[in-house]
């Protein structure tokens, strides 16, 4: 459905934020993208949704295809028109607009005929959004704002949904709820790319996963394979590394020792 | 008492015109964060079309062409100049609008030469008696027209897809792009609407009643009162633009009467300064001071 090939992305003239990234989102699949701070996860989603330019980033090499169409040079509205819609990191709801207006904004990129059905779907998934319809989005709790951000993206009836750290800053119970919703959205026929630092939730709802590290794919496989992988266990599933830096050194070390089925990341820096 | 009522009505009439200008100014700022210093030249351009065309096509037709022309000039400035320099920051784009302002204004002033034509043919210099009080017809018509236009604007801003897209983009450009809102279109329509409103405003400004002066460089400087109006209302607040416009109109009318014509202009800026000292982002604004 979505293929990323040899993608290299730069911000200004600095070191590449992504270099030589390959990635496949299977039809109707859920792909988890794991990785620590600054690994390039958001950069990847920005590239897919066409908002990279707003951050002064450029695709320096490679390509992104949706179906058999190249989308890495399209503008965000055209990409939404194709059915690929992103939910940005930190929710970014329109805080001064009402919940209903936020959802309406989400439907602007789609034909008006689909709006009623999309709204029903969103209200079914998130009844709270129907209850709070006339409230300002800025007054919602963090979890509700995340639901609104996802609901807003669903209003245009996407076939591929890109989620950037939906669990960020939310209580475990809410994270679980978001996870369940992602599964439900997927079951309704929407493919998902789920960027997460919360690997437990992400691996639980996804079928495939990759680990991004300093701009390259460090590990790739099915969700089950990655859950079982020692590196992932240690780094993301409650291992005992003393600090992120120490943990990353350990991972690098571990990988050097076992270059096998796993693709090595190309250390660019 | 009668004088006072007269003053208030005059102030409101002037204020309504400033509100039209300030509103245009604010929606451009909201959509793009660009302070449009070319607003005065849009006003002049609309007026210039009216005075050159009314002989041949009649005043009403010329007025319509003037309004539409001012809108199209604004659209052209955005499409041909500002949108081409995509990566330029709002500050340099604002400087660009100063360039446009100087070129358009100087050319029109040159073409007008020594003629200073009044343009409010349909209402100018026809005072109305209401209950023994003499009122300027221009101010009354301006009040009605502005009320209608501002109401229409707020209805569209609140309920139409255009309004939703405008507000979404004003609040969060990236999130708006992510839901498929075309920022180029939003920006272009903001400029178009601002230009149309400027074209309407000039029909009241270059009159005996309003300024006692015809279309000239003076019209441009009167239009500049839209800046303090927008700033004191809050540069990013549409409601603030209306309140700011009315405030400027009233201050102007009262200061002219009770102090002097010369003092009125500084009074407007004094009020603006006082408001900014108390509320740095203007009465209804959310952004501290201006970014220019
Ligand atoms: N607008 C920008 N300009 C310059 N560099 C940037 C910009 N955005 C991100 N970067 C750099 O690109 C790299 C990848 O950043 P990115 O935001 O994609 O990481 P991330 O994996 O999403 O991190 P996080 O988990 O903290 O959100 C980082 O080194 C970051 O500093
Ligand atoms: Mg990120």
UniProtKB/TrEMBL annotation, chain A:
Keyword terms of this UniProt record: Amino-acid transport, ATP-binding, Nucleotide-binding, Transport
ABC transporter domain segment(s): 2-239
Domain of life: Bacteria
InterPro entries, A to Z: AAA+_ATPase (IPR003593), ABC_transporter-like_ATP-bd (IPR003439), ABC_transporter-like_CS (IPR017871), BCAA_Transport_ATP-bd_LivF (IPR052156), P-loop_NTPase (IPR027417)
Gene Ontology MF term list: ATP binding
Keyword Hydrolase: no
Gene3D superfamilies per the UniProt record, alphabetical: P-loop containing nucleotide triphosphate hydrolases
UniProt record similarity statement: Belongs to the ABC transporter superfamily.
Full protein name: ABC transporter ATP-binding protein
TrEMBL record, chain B:
Superkingdom to which the source organism belongs: Bacteria
Topological category with respect to the lipid bilayer: Multi-pass membrane protein
Annotated signal peptide: none
Keyword Cell membrane: yes
Entry keyword set: Amino-acid transport, Cell membrane, Membrane, Transmembrane, Transmembrane helix, Transport
Residue ranges the record marks as coiled coil: none
Pfam families in the record: BPD_transp_2 (PF02653)
Keyword Repressor belongs to the record: no
Family annotation (CDD domains): TM_PBP1_LivH_like
Family affiliation: Belongs to the binding-protein-dependent transport system permease family. LivHM subfamily.
The protein's name in its UniProt record: Branched-chain amino acid ABC transporter permease
UniProt source species: Prauserella endophytica
Lineage of origin: Bacteria, Bacillati, Actinomycetota, Actinomycetes, Pseudonocardiales
């Amino acid at each position: 459905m979505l293929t990323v090939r040899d993608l290299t992305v730069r911000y200004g003239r600095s070191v590449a934020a992504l270099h030589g990234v390959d990635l496949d989102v299977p039809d109707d699949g859920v792909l988890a993208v794991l990785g620590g701070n600054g690994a390039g996860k958001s950069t990847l989603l920005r590239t897919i949704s066409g908002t990279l330019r707003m951050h002064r980033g450029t695709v320096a090499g490679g390509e992104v295809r949706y179906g058999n169409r190249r989308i890495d040079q399209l503008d965000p509205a055209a990409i939404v028109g194709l059915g690929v819609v992103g939910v940005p990191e930190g929710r970014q709801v329109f805080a001064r607009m009402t919940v209903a207006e936020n959802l309406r904004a989400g439907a602007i990129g789609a034909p008006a005929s689909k709006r009623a059905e999309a709204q029903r779907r969103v209200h079914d998934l998130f009844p709270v959004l129907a209850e709070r319809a006339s409230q300002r989005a800025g007054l919602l709790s963090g979890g509700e704002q995340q639901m609104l951000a996802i609901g807003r993206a669903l209003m245009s009836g996407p076939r591929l949904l890109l989620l950037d750290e939906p669990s960020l800053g939310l209580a475990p119970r809410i994270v679980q709820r978001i996870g369940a919703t992602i599964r439900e959205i997927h079951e309704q026929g929407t493919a998902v790319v789920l960027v997460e630092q919360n690997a437990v939730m992400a691996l639980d709802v996804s079928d495939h996963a990759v680990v991004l590290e300093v701009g390259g794919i460090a590990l790739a496989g099915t969700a089950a394979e990655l859950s079982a992988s020692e590196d992932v266990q240690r780094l993301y599933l409650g291992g005992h590394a003393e600090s992120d830096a120490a943990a990353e050194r350990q991972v690098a070390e571990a990988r050097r020792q076992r270059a096998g089925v796993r693709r090595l990341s190309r250390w660019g820096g | 008492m009668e004088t006072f009522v007269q003053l208030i009505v005059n102030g409101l009439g002037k204020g309504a015109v400033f509100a039209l200008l300030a509103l245009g100014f604010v929606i451009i700022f909201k959509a793009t964060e660009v302070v449009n210093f070319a607003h005065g030249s849009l006003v002049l351009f609309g007026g210039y079309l009216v005075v050159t065309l009314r002989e041949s096509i009649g005043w009403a037709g010329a007025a319509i062409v003037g309004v539409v022309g001012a809108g199209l000039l604004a659209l052209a400035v955005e499409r041909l100049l500002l949108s081409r320099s995509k990566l330029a920051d709002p500050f340099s784009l604002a400087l660009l609008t100063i360039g446009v302002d100087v070129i358009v204004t100087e050319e029109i002033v040159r073409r007008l030469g020594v003629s200073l034509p009044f343009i409010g043919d349909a209402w100018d210099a026809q005072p109305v008696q209401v209950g023994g009080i003499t009122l300027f017809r221009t101010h009354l018509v301006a009040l009605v027209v502005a009320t209608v236009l501002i109401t229409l604007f707020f209805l569209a801003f609140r309920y139409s897809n255009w309004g939703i897209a405008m507000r979404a983009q004003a609040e969060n450009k990236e999130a708006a792009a992510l839901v498929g809102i075309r920022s180029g279109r939003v920006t272009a329509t903001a400029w178009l609407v601002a230009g149309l409103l400027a074209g309407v405003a000039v029909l009241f400004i270059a009159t005996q009643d309003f300024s006692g002066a015809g279309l000239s460089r003076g019209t441009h400087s009167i239009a500049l009162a839209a800046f303090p109006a927008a700033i004191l209302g809050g540069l990013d607040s549409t409601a603030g633009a209306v309140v700011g416009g009315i405030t400027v109109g009233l201050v102007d009318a009262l200061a002219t009467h009770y102090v002097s014509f010369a003092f009125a202009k500084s009074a407007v800026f004094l009020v603006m300064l006082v408001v900014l000292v108390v509320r740095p982002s203007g009465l209804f604004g959310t952004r501290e001071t201006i970014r220019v």
